[in-house]
Amino acid sequence: MSLNTPISDWSSQRIWVVGASSGIGLALVQSLVTLGARVAVSARRAEPLQALASASPQHVLALPLNMTENADWDRAWATLKATWQGVDWVVFCAADYTPVRAWELDRDRAAKLIDVNLTGTLRGVATVLPDFLAKGQGGIALVASVAGYMGLPKSLVYGPTKAALINFAESLYLDVKPKGLDVCIINPGFVATPLTAQNDFEMPALMTPEAAAAEIIQGLERGDYEIHFPKRFTRVLRLIRRLPDRLRLAVLARIAKNS
Ligand SMILES: NC(=O)c1ccc[n+]([C@@H]2O[C@H](COP(=O)([O-])OP(=O)(O)OC[C@H]3O[C@@H](n4cnc5c(N)ncnc54)[C@H](OP(=O)(O)O)[C@@H]3O)[C@@H](O)[C@H]2O)c1
Q1: Alpha carbon 136 to chain centroid distance?
Q2: How far, in Å, is the centroid of ligand 1 from the Cα of 35?
Q3: CATH architecture of 10-257
Q4: For residue 87, what is the DSSP state?
Q5: Domain ranges of the chain
Q6: CA dist., res. 107 & res. 15, Å (int)
């Protein structure tokens, strides 16, 4: 049995993709529009959002926002409720990433990244949740990362924000599933986007944003709780995660040495 409500007809769906101006979010929007869904698109940069809306005015609504601003969330949600009477799913895809090793840890930069990736996402969930709960309907999809599975090299600040989202999703699911809501956690491996373009190491099993979007759509259609991909990479990491400390840390130290 599915852990979430499977989606069989995208043309009846209203999806809000936050982090839609590039990478995985942009590819997801393009696929959803092709499938006939109505998609609200958010990010800071208005131009790419407006370009999506101009290309498909019947299907796309541009709602620029900054993850760190409560007022932006309130304004965007009020517009969505007035225009589409709400949404069926929100996909929280926005994030920032900088590779950081221990000797590069900077408290202001760390706080800023946490404010976008973690606090920003919680701001967004807190914005929509009261209406979802009142209706007894609505889905929340959180894009975390395999970097949240365990402490990977160069993920000193980014990794903990994703680990926190994985934990948050589980707590949220326990609370809201009995009230009719859906919660899904999405853990991609490496995807070729502006976010990973700054990586100076060879990324194993690197995939395209379009392939990532297809995985997300299939996972939502199945009603999966966790959507992770590509499997040939994520299965290995999930195995390493389960190793005893001594073995796991030895494997991770080897990876850190080579990256
Ligand atoms: N690429 C990978 O290998 C990979 C792997 C695992 C997980 N992920 C996760 O997948 C998601 C998408 O990442 P991506 O690789 O597609 O990166 P990306 O192309 O850099 O996209 C990031 C998106 O987040 C938005 N964003 C960043 N800061 C924001 C802010 N303060 N307010 C509003 N929007 C903001 C960006 O738009 P603006 O700049 O216009 O605001 C952009 O639309 C992220 O959650 C990332 O952590 C990616």
Answers
A1: 23
A2: 23
A3: 3-Layer(aba) Sandwich (3.40)
A4: -
A5: 10-257
A6: 35
Q: How far apart are CA 46 and CA 44, in angstroms?
A: 6
> What is residue 44's DSSP assignment?
S
User: Strand 60-62's sheet: what is its strand order?
Assistant: 60-62, 38-42, 14-18, 89-92, 139-143, 182-188, 226-229
Mutate to test the pocket of ligand 1, among 17, 21, 31 (most ligand atoms within 8 A of CB): 21
Residues 233 and 104: their CA atoms lie apart, in Å, by 28
Neighbours of 120 (CB within 10 A): 26
Q: Which residues contact 1 (CB under 8 A, 6 or more apart)?
A: none
- Report helix, strand or coil for 185: strand
Mean pLDDT by 10 residues, the chain (259 residues): 96 98 98 98 98 97 98 98 98 97 97 98 98 98 98 95 98 98 98 93 94 98 98 97 97 86
Is 173 a catalytic site residue? Answer: no
Q: Which two tokens mark 70?
A: 């409560």
Q: Is the dihedral of CA 153, 155, 156, 162 positive or negative?
A: negative
What is Dmax (Cα atoms) for the chain? 56
Q: What was the pLDDT predicted at 146?
A: 98
Which pair of structure tokens corresponds to residue 229?
A: 């991909």
Name residue 256's amino acid: A
DSSP for 98-111? --B-GGG--HHHHH
Residue nearest to atom 2 of ligand 1 (CA): 191
User: Looking at residue 259, what is its pLDDT?
Assistant: 76
- Distance in angstroms (rounded) separating the CA atoms of residues 121 and 68: 9
